[in-house]
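Onboarding guide, step 5: your first structure request.
Type a short instruction followed by the sequence, for example:

Predict the 3D structure of this protein.
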Amino acid sequence: MSPRPLLLTLLAILLVPLLPAQEPETDLIKKGLELARRLGGEDATDFIRVVKGKKTARLETAAVTYEDLDRELSVTLVAAVHIGDAAYYEALQKELAGYDLVLFEGIDRGQSEPDEVLLMVGRLQRMLKGALRLEFQPERMDMAKANMKRADISADELARELEAREVGLIPNENLVRAMAPLLEKGFAMLADDGKPESRIKAVIRDKLKRSMADVLGSGLGIYERFKREQDRLRDEVIIGHRNQHAFAMLEKEIAADPRRRFAIIYGAAHQPDFECRLVEDLGLVKTNTRWFSAWRMGKEQATEEPVREPVEEEEPPAPAPVKKI
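The system replies with structure tokens like these:
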């Protein structure tokens, strides 16, 4: 197995969000995923990127706003990575405070027994954040605010949908299980042990961080090149089925009162599918993009404020729905 697919597998494991009966696959799921793949060229929005300087680099995620001015409807897709700088989560928390309703991601474990794979993922996530000297999103963000509502499926439903497609939660699960002890040892070596840090440890951490940022910043393109049929089936659940659940909640809220500012905060990999649904099904038009620094590498200091980057439009947003493909 080449190193790049293995790194992609590791990233897939470590960036799954966790929190302490939908219908099966539908045409909406298929359409959303297919459109997201088709829009992988110039028309697609980049929800995650790497910005490099001479000696520094930043992994950034986007908050992209879509509007229908006639209906006074506004929906912002807030992309996130689940391990990042403390200042990144402070900036996202500040951003979310400005919306009337925020729908957020997080698999609900409920009263069911913890799944072995989910426990392994959670353990590796926490060890990775220690190794990279980053923070874990569920530990740094307060999602119990009055304007926030969880919009995700339960762990039991997730398991049922994966079982129906005969796929596991993560790619190459047996390989990852075998490697988990080695990964844990490696992460433990890079974690803060209370002693003055050696230069070699700092260099290793920086190189690991930059390598992971490069893969994450490549977006869906690099993942698509290595994707197998079972990965597409897994995406129907991990992305399509969960997005359908969240989007149905959004439509219900819009029907109740469209003159509110809505936001959906989900992992960056979910956002191209959400974008297709907003454009295709609600007829919204992209109007603005803002960037948030999730990881800072080199000696650049983190700040709370996002980088603001308005979308350049040749024409004003059209209120009419985009023609169906």
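Each response can be followed by summary notes, for example: The first helix runs from residue 3 to 14.
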